[in-house]
Design a protein that fits this description.
By secondary structure, the protein is α/β, with parallel strands linked by helices. The protein has 9 helices and 14 strands. Helices cover 29% and strands 32% of the residues.
Length: 295
């Protein structure tokens, strides 16, 4: 079976955007940007209010080439292309080809949210379970059920969300939270998402779970409607920027996740003019906040 090489470059004191664009024109299979930081440290996510930036301290460039191609020749070509005078530090990783679909699927297992709620990749054979199962095809939307922020929201939905409520899932991703709301409470639920591909993935997941949920692009979302409960599992910086929008659409309750321990006080203070948020629970350093509108 054919082998491949990943070449990871550390380009100190060089503009990574410029390097990425130039290296992309070389005879290589692919060029990508890798975040060096952990999920807790990283702020490199889609933010509708802010353009992401990369630099050599936080990111590396990864190049994929065939095994038989010379790494040293590639590095020499990159040095000339970038007019780089210093020696380029790199790491080389050799790996075998494989059935990438089967490999990707093998990474996703059954995820237990509680004794009565589980997330299951749709290709995994169902085992007997005395509870609710949500089927997910990960696709392009965030929300496989494995991340602590998603688990925190799912547990709250299962334990605390009452029936006969209108619900908004803002930043709906794969649709996992919306699907949980529908299957666990049968409440009226709408999802809002910035990414059209994520909406396509969410609609696919709807069909896997035999539910119908309306998803709206954020650019088309009507801020004049109100919902009994607004749920949003996005990162803290984006949550701060969305405070005024959430104020317009929240009728009663607000549930926020995607917040690290050290960000809780800042989020609460940014929202305190219109809602009293309280810490509810925490997992792996991520926190869940809930509040009711001030009377």
């Amino acid at each position: 079976m054919k082998n491949w090489k990943n070449i990871t470059l550390e380009l100190l004191e060089y503009n990574l955007d410029d390097a990425f664009n130039k290296i992309s024109h070389l005879d290589v299979l692919s060029v990508s940007i890798k975040d060096k930081r952990t999920s807790k440290e990283s702020d490199w996510f889609d933010d509708p209010e802010k353009t992401s930036t990369i630099n050599q301290k936080t990111h590396s460039i990864v190049i994929l080439i065939e095994e038989e191609k010379s790494t040293q020749t590639l590095i020499k070509n990159i040095q000339q292309l970038l007019n780089f005078k210093e020696e380029i530090y790199f790491e080389e990783e050799l790996f075998e080809d494989r059935d990438w679909v089967k490999h990707t699927q093998s990474l996703f297992k059954e995820i237990s949210i509680s004794d009565s709620l589980r997330i299951l990749p749709h290709w995994v054979k169902k085992k007997k379970f005395n509870g609710t199962t949500i089927l997910i095809d990960p696709g392009t939307g965030f929300g496989t059920g494995s991340h602590a922020t998603t688990k925190l929201c799912l547990r709250w939905i299962e334990d605390q969300l009452k029936e006969n409520r209108t619900v908004l899932d803002f930043g709906s991703g794969s649709g996992i939270l919306s699907i949980a709301v529908k299957k666990l409470t049968n409440n009226s639920i709408n999802g809002v998402e910035i990414d059209e591909l994520a909406i396509k993935n969410a609609l696919h997941n709807n069909s896997l779970n035999d539910v119908k949920i309306n998803y709206i692009l954020s650019t088309n979302f009507d801020l004049n409607q109100k919902f009994d409960v607004v749920i949003s599992n996005i990162l803290a910086n984006t949550l701060i920027s969305l405070s005024e929008k959430f104020k317009k659409v929240t009728k009663d309750e607000l549930l926020l996740s995607g917040i690290l321990n050290h960000q809780v006080k800042n989020i609460i203070s940014k929202y305190e003019s219109w809602i009293e948020l309280k810490f509810i629970s925490e997992e792996d350093g991520w926190c869940l906040l809930h509040g009711k509108l001030k009377s």
